[in-house]
Every structure is written in structure tokens, then in C-alpha cells.
Amino acid sequence: MISNEARAVRNQLIEKGLETPLTENNLNNEQKYERIKGLMAEVLATLGLDLNDDSLTETPHRIAKMYTYEIFSGLDYANFPAMSLIENKMQVEEMIKVRDISLISSCEHHFVTIDGTAKVAYIPGKKIIGLSKINRLVRFFSQRPQVQERLTQQILIALQTLLETDNVAITIQATHYCVKSRGVMDVNSSTETTALGGIFKTNDRTRAEFLL
Ligand SMILES: Nc1nc2c(ncn2[C@@H]2O[C@H](COP(=O)(O)OP(=O)(O)OP(=O)(O)O)[C@@H](O)[C@H]2O)c(=O)[nH]1
Ligand SMILES: [Zn+2]
């Protein structure tokens, strides 16, 4: 079951060309799990690993479970978090900012970890969102194969849709293990991406207050 909120967010992402590239393969989760398990057993065997070893024998199962139900669970809108949105009866007109939201995702180019934090702010119009729901939303879109730029935009569009205001901003600072543990092997660099909507884009003071 996909909630109305999840459907609205998905439609907006598709409309704006920001949905993760997906193709419908008509496999349910159980079928995905079974296929990945079989394919991962082949990968391990191809690497020359002994699948009869008691430490390795369950690895194809573990990876299939992890991909289907854990680190890529955000591909399935049935897992979109329930949102608690309330009316802005308290007439908040100033910025609400949540800092240091933990963010763990996976790089879609190499399938290794992206490890960082997000900062999210909005200026309420008619609606206020339960604070933990912002963290949950960040987590939902992180649990996909990602590039950091798209992840940042997806969170922006999702919050704009749910809060019914353009006045949302997000910044993500993250370390990419595809840069750290392989390839160029730079252990120190991190990447910062920002997506600004509404007044955060047009008003220098608002932008500066957010980036503080
Ligand atoms: N823009 C962007 N690039 C990313 C992200 N995650 C990984 N990359 C980069 O994607 C690029 C893929 O480059 P390729 O040349 O196709 O792959 P590669 O040969 O493995 O590249 P190296 O990492 O340089 O060894 C690399 O430069 C990665 O650092 C991301 O979130 N955003
Ligand atoms: Zn990568």
C-alpha cells in the first residue's frame, strides 16, 4: 500500500525529472530477494570464494536481504514514512532548522557507502511537520542507490510537496567511500550539496541564516 503522501511526492519527483531512474520488472520483494541471492552466490564463486565455508555460506542471503529490505528499501514507496503534518495554529513565521541529521546512503556508481549529515530548514506556511519525520524522510531517500546531488533535490521536493510551501532548504555534507576506500583514495575530502527553494533562493539574508 502506498500512502497518498507518498504518491504525491512521487508524482512531483517524476514531473520534475528528479525520480531515481527505475524500470518496472514486476518482481515482488520475495522474488527480488531470491534472484539477488542466486546472483550473489555466482559473484562470490566467480571471485573464487568457497561458499561452503561456514562464514561465507550465508553471505548471498545476507546481501540479498540487505539490498531488498534494508539499504535499498527506499526504492519502494510502500516504505515511505508516515508523516505527521499539523496546522500552523501557532503562527510560526520564522525558520525551523534541523541540524546534524545522520545520513547513510549508497553511491549508485559503485554501491559503497556515503556517510554524512544533513541540515534541513523551512519557513512554515499552513503546515508544520513532526520533527522526527524530517529525519525519516532523509533516511527514506538515502536508502536508495544515490548520487548526492539527486538525493539533496529529492528531499527538497518531498518537503515542499508535504509542507505545501517552496520555502525549504537542505544541505548535505558527506564522505563518499568510493572516493575514500578505492579509486583516488582520498581519505579527507567531503562533498557539500545544497538545494534551496523559494525565499531561501531569493533572499540573501534568509540564505545566510540557513547556511550559518
Ligand atoms: N557528482 C557525483 N559524483 C559521484 C557521486 N558519487 C560518486 N561519484 C563519482 O562518480 C564518478 C564515476 O566516475 P567513472 O570515471 O565513471 O568511474 P571510476 O573509473 O570508478 O572513477 P574513479 O572513482 O575516479 O576511479 C567518480 O568521479 C565518482 O567520484 C555523487 O554522489 N555525485
Ligand atoms: Zn561511487
Automatic annotation (TrEMBL):
PROSITE patterns xrefs: GTP_CYCLOHYDROL_1_1, GTP_CYCLOHYDROL_1_2
Transmembrane segments: none
Coiled coil residues, start to end: none
GO BP annotations listed: one-carbon metabolic process; tetrahydrobiopterin biosynthetic process; tetrahydrofolate biosynthetic process
Catalysed reactions, semicolon-separated: GTP + H2O = 7,8-dihydroneopterin 3'-triphosphate + formate + H(+)
EC number, UniProt record: 3.5.4.16
Domain GTP cyclohydrolase I: 39-211
Protein name in the entry: GTP cyclohydrolase 1
